[in-house]
Amino acid sequence: MRTSAALVCLILSIACRAEAPAGAAGLQVGLAHVRAGAEEQIAGETMRRYTFEPSAQPSVRFSPARPWLGEGELRVSVQNAMPWAVTLSIDIEGTAGAHLKATVGLPAGPAQTLIVPLHATSPRAFGMQAGPPMPVQLGGQRVLLATTVEGAPSLQAIRAVQLSIPAPQAAQVLLVGTPGAAAGDTLHDVYAGIVDRYGQYTRGQWPEKVHSDAALRSAHVRERAQLGGMPGDRGDGRPDGRTSAAGWFHTRKLHGRWQLVAPDGHPFFSLGVNAVAPDGGRSYVQGREWMFTGRPPATGAWQAFYGEDDSRRDTGAAGGLTYNHGRWFDFYAANLYRVDGVRWREAWRERTRQRLLAWGFNTLGDWSDETIARGHSLAYTRSINITGDYANVATGYDWWGRMPDPFDPHFAAATERAVAKAAEGVREDRWLLGYFADNELAWASPGAQGRWALALGTLRGEPRSPAKQAFIAMLMRKYGDALRLGVAWGVGVTRWEALEQAGFQAPLPSEAHQAIAQDYSAWLRAYADRYFRTVAQALRRHDPHHLFLGGRFAVRTPEAVAACAQWCDVVSINVYADLPQHGMDLAALHQLDKPVLVSEFSFGSIDRGPFGAGPVAVWNEARRGEAYARFLAAAATDPAIVGAHWFQYADEPVSGRLLDGENAHFGLVGITDIPFAAFVRTVRNANASVRKTP
Q1: What phi and psi, each to the nearest 5 degrees, are found at residue 156?
Q2: Does 3.10.105.10 match the CATH number of domain 223-275+354-445+518-692?
Q3: With pLDDT > 70 as the criterion, what percentage of the chain qualifies?
Q4: How many whole angstroms separate alpha carbon 384 and alpha carbon 463?
Q5: How distant is the alpha carbon of residue 192 from its chain centre?
Q6: Helix axes 331-340, 213-228, angle to 10 degrees
Q7: Where in the chain are all domains bearing CATH 3.20.20.80?
Q8: CATH assignment of 13-191, given 2.60.120.10, 2.60.120.430, 2.160.10.10, 2.20.25.90?
């Protein structure tokens, strides 16, 4: 029996981990769930065929007899022999246990040179969130560069290189040459000169791309003619675009369905677009001028499109981002100037208004130029941006900054000022749909225990933190004696002073100590109640007519959403999913019995210039339109959802926006202000279908 078991182990060992014939210069090749085939001559290079079998991580490991010196980058020729793209993982082992790891998408097609820089890097090192799509042609060579490499700051020597395919479901065949270290800086070459004078990706091609000022103007002339032939739709889902003195935008529930109601009493499903503004094309150029070609000089008329921003943003979104301050250039506004001259701003507003109405939209979402809407058959929204010298709480996520501490009296004062400013000049405007408060606050953090991040962060705070003092006071009212708290939580707390210490490590909820989750949940609700109540009461003092549209949730907790439902007229949620029900708990929202606005949704692809596709990527431009129509139809049929706002009007700059380097293809129009015709056509038809829905 023991002999048979040993024999089975030996057979499995040979089958699962073997060695291919030694390569050049004594290179040893180890195989795990991979079969080595014959050598082939491809484009003058010897490459071997490898079949990666279905398993957890089939791999080929190359080990030189002597470590290679780290000369700048690893190079190896690869060819995907399958008719589909394959995900390839690369693990480069250095000395003293150092590793560099990267993952690339290996497209089907001819052989190419896979290059991995021998140091950790990412597109953020170049001021953007997503890097150029691969492969690219450089010097007549097809190059597949790993733009994101994690691990050691650098490798001085290479002991082994492992190529693997994560969990293939069927056999995958690759042809692989002999890897080796080489001098060079392909990483720099890939980013050099990637943005043309119009803000477009230089190495890509797509139908709306322009190559001259004349072509840019001609495209706009053609579009103006098309717009002139479209119905100048009333844009608000009603028989006419007029308002009356009958009322304001409000909500109602009719036959089990929530509705927004326009000032004249008609139902109104809010079809909106975010960031309809002419300043979204700003991108830092200082320090990385070598990425741009043909950029206008900062003199004469072009000087107006340059600016300076020296503020480094202390947020998670900007973490690790280089080129995050200094001189910027606004590519989008510069293109508007090329088309319409000195009156570009007025021309853009009129053109944009015509477009939105013709495309079936009826609302300007957040961060938009409300001049387009006011008095022009479009509803619009405003933001209450609360800033000031008040305390805050860290959740560990803090993507846009720490949570405001609503228990700090300074927060109430800051809210009063922010609401007064937001309401100024619009209290009597019946086209104002309502107000949002802040945006995507860090109510939670990602992960299984992320729901409790705000409670844990509160107790971790400084003793003088108003929120911490309020939380401890709540616990004291419940338990009286700190020892009782310690028993309930399963921690060695005997005195309340222990909780007051900075950095107190509160326990995570567990089955054994269910009181922890109960106490944290109560605190999360109290925190959210204080925040939304403070804003709601200030808003009612300064503008009793218009809707409070909530806080544009991203990460969130049930407690925060419930508090929003209590104090706000509408619960607004930014939903990045294929369908609304996959991005929020609609069953729970139905129980809260409050109208819901999808304040952001979007789908992106990488075939129209910008490198990023955003949180919900689709394969290509055609799929973007299909995804839009499917999402909107689902939203319009849900009895709680009263609107959906697309993010955003124009594409983000290829080289990254100022805020956080985001550079995604989200737009209805490109950086040249030319609409993506096929996508817009699908959007218009989807909007029309929703507007016809009873």
Answers
A1: -90, -20
A2: no
A3: 93
A4: 30
A5: 25
A6: 70
A7: 223-275+354-445+518-692
A8: 2.60.120.430
CA dihedral over 301, 302, 305, 307, signed as positive or negative: negative
The token pair that represents 123 in the structure block: 């597109």
Average pLDDT over residues 389-418: 96
| Dihedral (CA of 366, 367, 370, 373) sign | negative
Question: What is the pTM assigned to this prediction?
Answer: 0.93
pLDDT at 106 over 50: yes
The two structure tokens encoding residue 135: 């492969």
| Exposed/middle/buried for residue 492 (C-beta within 10 Å: 0-12, 13-18, 19+) | exposed
In this prediction, residues 372-387 reach a mean pLDDT of 91
Say what the alpha-carbon torsion angle 164, 167, 170, 176 is, to the nearest 10 degrees: -10
Question: Sorting pLDDT into bands at 50, 70 and 90, what band is 377?
Answer: confident
Percent of the chain with pLDDT over 90: 87
Query: Cα(529)–Cα(562) distance, rounded to whole angstroms?
Result: 9
The ranges of the chain annotated as CATH 2.60.120.430 are: 13-191
Closest CA to 381 of 532, 270, 497: 270
Give 254: exposed, middle or buried? Use CB within 10 Å, 0-12, 13-18, 19+. exposed
Closest CA to 242 of 263, 259, 272: 263
Q: What is the pLDDT of residue 570?
A: 98
